[in-house]
Amino acid sequence: MENKYYIEYVKRNLRKCQLKQLDILVEIDRICKKHNIVYWLDGGSILGAVRHGGFIPWDDDIDLGMRQEDLDRFVEVAQTELPSHLFLQTKDSDPGQKEPIVKIRDLNSLYIEDTDVFSVDYQKGLFVDIFPFVDYPKVSRGLAHDILKGLSVSHSILHRQHYYSWKSFAEFFYFGMKNVVLNSLWKILSCVMPDSDYMGNIPINNGYGIMHRKDSVFPVSDIQFEGMSFSAPSNPDAYLKDLYRNYMDVPPPEKRRIHAIFVAPQLLSESECGGESDK
Question: Do 108 and 273 touch, CB atoms closer than 8 A?
Answer without folding.
Answer: yes
